[in-house]
């Protein structure tokens, strides 16, 4: 994460007042406010593809997709974020009359960026887990065809799986959706890695890993 925008702790209300009059988006983490950087063309295209996939599959059902302009709150004084995609099933629970903060997402999707990947995997995910309605968390790479899928189990643990390559399959049982990674990465051209980084990025080109792990809330 970047350095805090304001070098003092802010309350939820102070952050929301700042955000609602700002031309730039900011996230809030336990009193600190962080500006959100711009996104790459790959990030933008992947996100657009994801929204199209979910909107098409959810049409006519009880679940709906929200764009990256909708804030999600994990709890008072915790995290206010702008996930790349949030899905709500049933009526959306909104914080107040401004109707710009969502409280009950069932699915949260984050497209990874080099500057935020550690945060999305760590502090942000730990706080997303506090949302009782959340059943699935997806981390989507933008430098290769790879999506990691975390699924909350009845005992509160999170199981992990990873799909790779254009034939990789993501199945989200909680909302009855499934798609191939080729749909997510349609028209995305990955940068050619430098020779020194080839070994670091060698991964299976298709299929889905069978390894799972459990992660406590």
Short summary:
The chain has helices at 12-20, 41-58, 117-121, 123-128, 181-184; strands at 26-29, 32-35, 63-66, 71-73, 79-81, 85-89, 101-102, 107-111, 136-140, 146-152, 158-164, 169-172, 177-180, 214-215. It is an alpha+beta fold and 217 residues long.
Task: Describe the SSE topology.
Layout: H1 12-20, E1 26-29, E2 32-35, H2 41-58, E3 63-66, E4 71-73, E5 79-81, E6 85-89, E7 101-102, E8 107-111, H3 117-121, H4 123-128, E9 136-140, E10 146-152, E11 158-164, E12 169-172, E13 177-180, H5 181-184, E14 214-215
User: What structural class do helix, strand and pairing data support?
Assistant: alpha+beta
Low-confidence stretches: 197-217
Silhouette: globular
Gyration radius (Cα, Å) is 17 Å
Order of helices and strands: HEEHEEEEEEHHEEEEEHE
- Approximately what portion of the residues adopt beta-strand conformation? 25-35%
Biggest pleated-sheet summary: 7 strands, mixed
* Overall residue-averaged pLDDT value: 87
Q: How would you sum up this structure, described in words?
A:
The protein is α+β, with helices and mostly antiparallel strands and 217 residues long. The chain is built from 5 helices and 14 strands. It is globular, with a radius of gyration of 17 Å.
């Amino acid at each position: 994460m970047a350095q805090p925008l304001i070098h003092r702790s802010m309350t939820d209300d102070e952050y929301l007042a700042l955000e609602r009059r700002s031309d730039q988006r900011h996230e809030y983490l336990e009193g600190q406010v962080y500006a959100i950087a711009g996104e790459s063309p790959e990030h933008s295209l992947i996100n657009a593809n994801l929204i199209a996939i979910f909107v098409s599959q959810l049409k006519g059902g009880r679940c709906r997709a929200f764009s990256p302009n909708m804030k999600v709150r994990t709890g008072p004084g915790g995290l206010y974020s702008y996930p790349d995609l949030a899905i709500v099933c049933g009526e959306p629970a909104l914080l107040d009359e401004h109707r710009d903060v969502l409280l009950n997402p069932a699915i949260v999707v984050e497209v990874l960026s080099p500057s935020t990947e550690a945060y999305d995997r760590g502090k942000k995910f730990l706080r997303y887990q506090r949302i009782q309605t959340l059943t699935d968390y997806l981390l989507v790479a933008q430098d290769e065809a790879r999506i990691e899928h975390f699924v909350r189990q009845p005992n509160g643990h999170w199981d992990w799986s990873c799909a790779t390559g254009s034939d990789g399959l993501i199945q989200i049982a909680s909302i009855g959706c499934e798609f191939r990674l080729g749909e997510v990465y349609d028209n995305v051209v990955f940068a050619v890695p430098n020779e020194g980084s080839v070994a670091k990025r060698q991964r299976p080109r298709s299929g889905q890993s069978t390894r799972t792990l459990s992660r406590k809330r």
